[in-house]
Amino acid sequence: MKIEDCLADFQIPQHLHYMDSAATSLIPEPVINSMNEYDRQYRANVGRGMHRLTRVATQKYQDAHDIVSNFIGGMEGTTVFTRNTTEAINMVAAGLDWRPGDRIVTTVMEHHSNLLPWLRLRQKGVKVNILHPGLQGIFEVEAFDRAITADTKLVAISHVSNVLGTVQPIREIAAICKEHGAYLLVDGAQSVPHFSVDAQDMGCDFLCFSGHKMLGPTGTGVLWMKNEVISPFMVGGGTIEDVDIEGDTAEGYTLTAGYKRYEAGTPHISGAIGLAQAVKYLESLGIDAIFRHEEKLTRRLLSGLAGIDNVTVYGPQDTKNRIGVVSFTIDRIHPHEVAYLLDERAAILVRSGDHCCIPLMKYLGLENGTVRASLYLYNTLEEIDLLIEIIEEIARTA
Asked: Which of 6, 177, 208, 356 is flagged as catalytic?
Protein backbone atom coordinates (compact mmCIF):
# COMPACT_ATOMS: atom_id res chain seq x y z
CA MET A 1 0.00 0.00 0.00
CA LYS A 2 1.22 3.50 -0.84
CA ILE A 3 1.09 6.24 1.76
CA GLU A 4 -1.16 8.42 -0.37
CA ASP A 5 -3.68 5.57 -0.47
CA CYS A 6 -3.97 5.28 3.30
CA LEU A 7 -5.98 8.47 3.85
CA ALA A 8 -9.23 6.63 3.13
CA ASP A 9 -8.60 4.52 6.26
CA PHE A 10 -8.78 7.56 8.57
CA GLN A 11 -12.01 9.43 9.31
CA ILE A 12 -10.78 12.58 11.06
CA PRO A 13 -8.50 13.92 8.26
CA GLN A 14 -11.52 14.09 5.99
CA HIS A 15 -12.72 17.22 7.82
CA LEU A 16 -9.87 18.30 10.13
CA HIS A 17 -6.12 18.82 9.82
CA TYR A 18 -4.72 16.68 12.63
CA MET A 19 -1.16 17.57 13.70
CA ASP A 20 -1.02 16.27 17.28
CA SER A 21 0.26 12.76 16.67
CA ALA A 22 3.07 13.07 19.21
CA ALA A 23 0.34 13.06 21.85
CA THR A 24 -1.99 10.50 20.24
CA SER A 25 -2.07 9.29 16.67
CA LEU A 26 -5.20 8.65 14.68
CA ILE A 27 -6.35 5.08 14.22
CA PRO A 28 -7.11 3.42 10.85
CA GLU A 29 -10.19 1.38 10.09
CA PRO A 30 -8.37 -2.00 9.85
CA VAL A 31 -7.21 -1.57 13.47
CA ILE A 32 -10.72 -0.70 14.63
CA ASN A 33 -12.10 -3.66 12.71
CA SER A 34 -9.64 -6.09 14.30
CA MET A 35 -10.71 -5.04 17.79
CA ASN A 36 -14.40 -5.22 16.91
CA GLU A 37 -13.87 -8.69 15.48
CA TYR A 38 -12.53 -9.88 18.84
CA ASP A 39 -15.52 -8.51 20.75
CA ARG A 40 -18.05 -9.78 18.23
CA GLN A 41 -16.68 -13.16 17.23
CA TYR A 42 -14.31 -14.67 19.80
CA ARG A 43 -14.47 -12.59 22.99
CA ALA A 44 -13.04 -14.68 25.81
CA ASN A 45 -10.28 -14.49 28.37
CA VAL A 46 -6.77 -15.65 27.49
CA GLY A 47 -4.81 -18.51 29.03
CA ARG A 48 -7.83 -19.65 30.99
CA GLY A 49 -9.79 -22.69 29.85
CA MET A 50 -9.98 -24.94 26.81
CA HIS A 51 -13.18 -24.00 25.00
CA ARG A 52 -12.95 -22.85 21.40
CA LEU A 53 -13.26 -19.12 22.03
CA THR A 54 -10.55 -18.94 24.65
CA ARG A 55 -8.26 -20.99 22.42
CA VAL A 56 -8.69 -18.50 19.57
CA ALA A 57 -8.30 -15.47 21.85
CA THR A 58 -5.21 -16.94 23.51
CA GLN A 59 -3.56 -17.64 20.16
CA LYS A 60 -4.34 -14.14 18.88
CA TYR A 61 -2.93 -12.62 22.06
CA GLN A 62 0.26 -14.66 21.78
CA ASP A 63 0.53 -13.74 18.11
CA ALA A 64 0.26 -10.07 19.07
CA HIS A 65 3.33 -10.38 21.31
CA ASP A 66 5.26 -12.05 18.50
CA ILE A 67 4.24 -9.44 15.92
CA VAL A 68 5.27 -6.54 18.15
CA SER A 69 8.50 -8.27 19.20
CA ASN A 70 9.48 -8.85 15.59
CA PHE A 71 8.68 -5.23 14.69
CA ILE A 72 11.27 -3.92 17.17
CA GLY A 73 13.85 -6.66 16.62
CA GLY A 74 13.09 -8.00 20.07
CA MET A 75 12.43 -11.70 19.53
CA GLU A 76 15.41 -12.60 21.71
CA GLY A 77 14.06 -10.67 24.71
CA THR A 78 10.77 -10.45 26.59
CA THR A 79 7.93 -8.27 25.31
CA VAL A 80 5.43 -7.30 28.00
CA PHE A 81 2.18 -5.51 27.22
CA THR A 82 1.42 -2.52 29.46
CA ARG A 83 -1.08 0.34 29.44
CA ASN A 84 1.39 2.89 28.05
CA THR A 85 5.01 4.06 28.12
CA THR A 86 4.51 5.54 31.59
CA GLU A 87 3.54 2.21 33.11
CA ALA A 88 6.41 0.44 31.35
CA ILE A 89 8.98 2.87 32.78
CA ASN A 90 7.46 2.69 36.26
CA MET A 91 7.67 -1.12 36.12
CA VAL A 92 11.43 -0.85 35.67
CA ALA A 93 11.77 1.80 38.37
CA ALA A 94 9.80 -0.35 40.82
CA GLY A 95 11.25 -3.68 39.75
CA LEU A 96 15.01 -3.17 39.98
CA ASP A 97 16.80 -3.77 43.28
CA TRP A 98 17.90 -0.28 44.33
CA ARG A 99 20.47 0.40 47.02
CA PRO A 100 21.46 3.70 48.67
CA GLY A 101 24.25 5.27 46.62
CA ASP A 102 23.10 3.82 43.28
CA ARG A 103 23.17 6.43 40.53
CA ILE A 104 20.82 7.13 37.65
CA VAL A 105 21.79 9.29 34.68
CA THR A 106 19.00 10.98 32.77
CA THR A 107 18.41 14.32 31.05
CA VAL A 108 16.45 17.55 31.32
CA MET A 109 14.89 16.66 27.95
CA GLU A 110 12.76 13.88 29.34
CA HIS A 111 9.00 13.64 29.36
CA HIS A 112 7.80 13.61 32.97
CA SER A 113 7.10 9.89 32.59
CA ASN A 114 10.82 9.24 32.11
CA LEU A 115 11.86 11.61 34.88
CA LEU A 116 9.49 11.45 37.86
CA PRO A 117 9.91 7.68 38.47
CA TRP A 118 13.67 8.24 38.84
CA LEU A 119 13.30 11.35 41.01
CA ARG A 120 11.05 9.40 43.36
CA LEU A 121 13.86 6.90 43.92
CA ARG A 122 15.73 9.63 45.77
CA GLN A 123 13.59 8.52 48.72
CA LYS A 124 15.62 5.29 48.69
CA GLY A 125 18.95 7.10 48.65
CA VAL A 126 19.40 6.83 44.88
CA LYS A 127 21.28 9.72 43.28
CA VAL A 128 19.95 11.20 40.04
CA ASN A 129 22.34 13.00 37.69
CA ILE A 130 20.51 15.17 35.11
CA LEU A 131 22.37 16.15 31.94
CA HIS A 132 21.68 19.28 29.87
CA PRO A 133 22.00 19.49 26.07
CA GLY A 134 22.86 22.34 23.76
CA LEU A 135 19.99 24.73 23.06
CA GLN A 136 18.98 22.74 19.97
CA GLY A 137 18.47 19.70 22.16
CA ILE A 138 21.47 17.76 20.92
CA PHE A 139 23.79 15.87 23.28
CA GLU A 140 27.45 15.24 22.72
CA VAL A 141 28.35 11.63 23.48
CA GLU A 142 31.18 12.92 25.66
CA ALA A 143 28.60 14.23 28.16
CA PHE A 144 27.46 10.68 28.83
CA ASP A 145 31.03 9.40 28.84
CA ARG A 146 31.77 11.79 31.71
CA ALA A 147 28.53 11.16 33.60
CA ILE A 148 28.33 7.35 33.48
CA THR A 149 30.59 5.88 36.15
CA ALA A 150 31.09 2.60 37.96
CA ASP A 151 28.29 3.34 40.43
CA THR A 152 25.77 4.22 37.69
CA LYS A 153 23.08 1.57 37.79
CA LEU A 154 20.84 2.85 35.01
CA VAL A 155 20.76 5.44 32.24
CA ALA A 156 17.30 6.58 31.11
CA ILE A 157 16.93 8.63 27.92
CA SER A 158 14.33 9.39 25.27
CA HIS A 159 15.28 8.18 21.82
CA VAL A 160 13.49 11.23 20.38
CA SER A 161 12.43 14.40 22.16
CA ASN A 162 8.67 14.92 22.22
CA VAL A 163 9.29 18.70 22.19
CA LEU A 164 12.22 19.29 19.85
CA GLY A 165 12.09 16.15 17.70
CA THR A 166 15.82 15.52 18.14
CA VAL A 167 17.17 11.98 17.81
CA GLN A 168 19.81 10.99 20.37
CA PRO A 169 22.88 8.76 19.73
CA ILE A 170 21.54 5.67 21.49
CA ARG A 171 24.09 3.16 20.15
CA GLU A 172 27.01 5.24 21.37
CA ILE A 173 25.39 5.76 24.77
CA ALA A 174 24.69 2.01 24.97
CA ALA A 175 28.37 1.25 24.39
CA ILE A 176 29.32 3.50 27.31
CA CYS A 177 26.70 1.84 29.53
CA LYS A 178 28.04 -1.59 28.66
CA GLU A 179 31.57 -0.50 29.49
CA HIS A 180 30.50 0.54 33.00
CA GLY A 181 27.95 -2.23 33.61
CA ALA A 182 24.95 0.12 33.66
CA TYR A 183 21.48 -0.70 32.37
CA LEU A 184 20.11 1.45 29.54
CA LEU A 185 16.41 2.28 29.34
CA VAL A 186 15.19 3.92 26.13
CA ASP A 187 11.90 5.79 25.95
CA GLY A 188 10.88 4.95 22.39
CA ALA A 189 7.45 6.58 22.45
CA GLN A 190 8.44 9.05 19.71
CA SER A 191 10.80 6.82 17.73
CA VAL A 192 9.12 3.43 17.28
CA PRO A 193 6.13 4.94 15.39
CA HIS A 194 8.28 6.88 12.93
CA PHE A 195 11.42 5.00 11.92
CA SER A 196 12.98 1.57 12.14
CA VAL A 197 13.99 0.66 15.70
CA ASP A 198 15.90 -2.52 16.53
CA ALA A 199 16.19 -3.07 20.27
CA GLN A 200 18.98 -5.61 19.98
CA ASP A 201 20.97 -3.51 17.54
CA MET A 202 20.67 -0.39 19.72
CA GLY A 203 22.12 -2.27 22.66
CA CYS A 204 19.52 -1.18 25.22
CA ASP A 205 18.30 -3.27 28.14
CA PHE A 206 14.78 -1.82 28.24
CA LEU A 207 12.68 -0.27 25.48
CA CYS A 208 9.36 1.36 26.37
CA PHE A 209 6.73 2.73 23.99
CA SER A 210 2.99 3.30 23.56
CA GLY A 211 0.45 1.86 21.15
CA HIS A 212 -1.66 5.01 20.96
CA LYS A 213 1.15 6.94 19.25
CA MET A 214 1.58 4.35 16.47
CA LEU A 215 -1.96 3.92 15.08
CA GLY A 216 -2.97 1.60 17.93
CA PRO A 217 -5.62 1.90 20.63
CA THR A 218 -5.22 3.87 23.84
CA GLY A 219 -4.43 1.85 26.93
CA THR A 220 -1.74 -0.18 25.16
CA GLY A 221 2.02 -0.02 25.60
CA VAL A 222 5.12 -2.18 25.61
CA LEU A 223 8.02 -2.92 27.90
CA TRP A 224 10.71 -4.89 26.09
CA MET A 225 13.49 -6.34 28.22
CA LYS A 226 16.72 -7.88 27.05
CA ASN A 227 16.75 -10.00 30.19
CA GLU A 228 14.11 -10.53 32.88
CA VAL A 229 16.00 -8.69 35.61
CA ILE A 230 13.10 -6.86 37.27
CA SER A 231 10.59 -8.20 39.74
CA PRO A 232 6.94 -8.02 38.67
CA PHE A 233 5.07 -4.80 39.38
CA MET A 234 2.01 -6.88 40.33
CA VAL A 235 1.29 -10.56 40.88
CA GLY A 236 -1.95 -12.46 40.59
CA GLY A 237 -3.98 -14.30 37.99
CA GLY A 238 -1.90 -15.60 35.09
CA THR A 239 1.51 -14.80 36.59
CA ILE A 240 2.20 -18.02 38.47
CA GLU A 241 3.32 -21.56 37.76
CA ASP A 242 2.30 -22.92 41.16
CA VAL A 243 0.93 -21.81 44.52
CA ASP A 244 1.93 -23.82 47.59
CA ILE A 245 1.02 -22.02 50.79
CA GLU A 246 2.40 -24.92 52.84
CA GLY A 247 5.66 -25.09 50.92
CA ASP A 248 9.16 -23.88 51.67
CA THR A 249 9.26 -20.82 49.39
CA ALA A 250 9.10 -17.48 51.19
CA GLU A 251 6.32 -16.17 48.96
CA GLY A 252 4.28 -19.35 48.76
CA TYR A 253 4.16 -19.27 44.96
CA THR A 254 6.35 -19.80 41.91
CA LEU A 255 6.17 -17.34 39.02
CA THR A 256 5.78 -18.53 35.47
CA ALA A 257 8.33 -17.64 32.80
CA GLY A 258 8.23 -15.05 30.04
CA TYR A 259 5.91 -12.10 29.62
CA LYS A 260 3.10 -13.76 31.57
CA ARG A 261 4.83 -13.20 34.91
CA TYR A 262 4.58 -9.45 34.29
CA GLU A 263 0.97 -9.31 33.08
CA ALA A 264 -1.18 -9.91 36.15
CA GLY A 265 -4.93 -10.20 35.70
CA THR A 266 -7.05 -10.00 32.58
CA PRO A 267 -5.17 -7.89 30.01
CA HIS A 268 -6.46 -5.45 27.41
CA ILE A 269 -7.02 -8.26 24.91
CA SER A 270 -8.74 -6.31 22.16
CA GLY A 271 -6.12 -3.59 22.59
CA ALA A 272 -3.29 -6.07 22.11
CA ILE A 273 -4.94 -7.39 18.97
CA GLY A 274 -5.41 -3.82 17.75
CA LEU A 275 -1.79 -2.97 18.48
CA ALA A 276 -0.64 -5.98 16.44
CA GLN A 277 -2.88 -4.86 13.58
CA ALA A 278 -1.40 -1.36 13.82
CA VAL A 279 2.08 -2.86 13.48
CA LYS A 280 0.98 -4.82 10.43
CA TYR A 281 -0.50 -1.65 8.95
CA LEU A 282 2.80 0.23 9.43
CA GLU A 283 4.68 -2.68 7.90
CA SER A 284 2.34 -2.71 4.90
CA LEU A 285 3.26 0.91 4.20
CA GLY A 286 6.93 0.38 5.03
CA ILE A 287 8.47 2.14 8.01
CA ASP A 288 11.24 3.59 5.82
CA ALA A 289 8.66 5.00 3.39
CA ILE A 290 6.83 6.56 6.34
CA PHE A 291 10.05 8.18 7.54
CA ARG A 292 10.82 9.60 4.09
CA HIS A 293 7.28 10.98 3.80
CA GLU A 294 7.49 12.68 7.18
CA GLU A 295 10.96 14.00 6.39
CA LYS A 296 9.58 15.72 3.29
CA LEU A 297 6.78 17.29 5.33
CA THR A 298 9.17 18.40 8.07
CA ARG A 299 11.56 19.98 5.61
CA ARG A 300 8.71 22.00 4.10
CA LEU A 301 7.45 23.10 7.52
CA LEU A 302 10.86 24.15 8.86
CA SER A 303 11.62 26.07 5.68
CA GLY A 304 8.28 27.86 5.79
CA LEU A 305 8.49 28.83 9.44
CA ALA A 306 12.03 30.14 9.02
CA GLY A 307 10.73 32.84 6.68
CA ILE A 308 8.08 34.26 9.02
CA ASP A 309 8.85 37.30 11.18
CA ASN A 310 8.10 36.99 14.93
CA VAL A 311 8.24 33.17 14.79
CA THR A 312 10.94 31.23 16.66
CA VAL A 313 11.48 27.52 16.00
CA TYR A 314 13.13 25.38 18.67
CA GLY A 315 15.41 22.46 17.94
CA PRO A 316 17.48 21.77 14.80
CA GLN A 317 16.65 23.89 11.77
CA ASP A 318 17.17 21.01 9.33
CA THR A 319 15.89 17.44 9.11
CA LYS A 320 19.16 15.78 10.09
CA ASN A 321 18.73 13.71 13.26
CA ARG A 322 15.17 14.86 13.88
CA ILE A 323 11.58 13.83 13.16
CA GLY A 324 8.42 15.78 12.37
CA VAL A 325 7.88 17.18 15.86
CA VAL A 326 8.23 20.94 15.44
CA SER A 327 7.89 23.37 18.35
CA PHE A 328 7.65 27.12 17.85
CA THR A 329 6.43 30.34 19.43
CA ILE A 330 5.07 33.60 18.07
CA ASP A 331 6.26 36.77 19.78
CA ARG A 332 3.77 38.30 22.22
CA ILE A 333 1.09 35.66 21.61
CA HIS A 334 0.48 32.90 24.16
CA PRO A 335 0.93 29.39 22.69
CA HIS A 336 -2.59 28.43 23.79
CA GLU A 337 -3.99 31.37 21.83
CA VAL A 338 -2.03 30.35 18.75
CA ALA A 339 -3.39 26.80 18.99
CA TYR A 340 -6.92 28.13 19.42
CA LEU A 341 -6.61 30.41 16.39
CA LEU A 342 -5.23 27.61 14.21
CA ASP A 343 -8.26 25.51 15.10
CA GLU A 344 -10.81 28.30 14.67
CA ARG A 345 -9.44 29.69 11.40
CA ALA A 346 -8.44 26.55 9.56
CA ALA A 347 -9.39 23.44 11.60
CA ILE A 348 -5.69 22.76 12.25
CA LEU A 349 -5.21 20.79 15.46
CA VAL A 350 -1.88 21.21 17.28
CA ARG A 351 -0.78 21.03 20.89
CA SER A 352 0.33 23.93 23.08
CA GLY A 353 1.85 24.24 26.54
CA ASP A 354 4.71 22.45 28.30
CA HIS A 355 4.16 19.02 26.67
CA CYS A 356 4.80 17.26 30.01
CA CYS A 357 8.36 18.62 29.92
CA ILE A 358 8.40 21.43 32.50
CA PRO A 359 12.15 21.14 33.30
CA LEU A 360 13.00 21.46 29.61
CA MET A 361 10.75 24.50 29.24
CA LYS A 362 12.47 26.16 32.21
CA TYR A 363 15.86 25.32 30.70
CA LEU A 364 14.82 26.94 27.41
CA GLY A 365 13.34 29.96 29.21
CA LEU A 366 9.83 29.31 27.89
CA GLU A 367 7.43 30.18 30.70
CA ASN A 368 4.32 29.42 28.64
CA GLY A 369 5.72 26.52 26.63
CA THR A 370 5.45 26.22 22.87
CA VAL A 371 3.11 25.42 20.04
CA ARG A 372 3.87 21.94 18.70
CA ALA A 373 2.92 20.55 15.32
CA SER A 374 3.63 16.82 15.17
CA LEU A 375 3.28 15.05 11.84
CA TYR A 376 2.53 11.52 10.75
CA LEU A 377 1.85 9.41 7.69
CA TYR A 378 -1.65 10.83 7.09
CA ASN A 379 -0.47 14.46 6.80
CA THR A 380 0.08 16.07 3.39
CA LEU A 381 2.17 18.84 1.86
CA GLU A 382 -1.03 20.78 1.24
CA GLU A 383 -1.75 20.73 4.96
CA ILE A 384 1.76 21.95 5.74
CA ASP A 385 1.33 24.86 3.33
CA LEU A 386 -1.98 25.74 4.99
CA LEU A 387 -0.36 25.63 8.44
CA ILE A 388 2.43 27.96 7.31
CA GLU A 389 -0.09 30.34 5.73
CA ILE A 390 -2.21 30.62 8.90
CA ILE A 391 0.83 31.00 11.15
CA GLU A 392 2.01 33.85 8.96
CA GLU A 393 -1.40 35.53 9.29
CA ILE A 394 -1.33 35.18 13.07
CA ALA A 395 2.27 36.39 13.31
CA ARG A 396 1.47 39.57 11.39
CA THR A 397 -0.82 40.64 14.25
CA ALA A 398 1.86 40.07 16.91
From this structure: 356
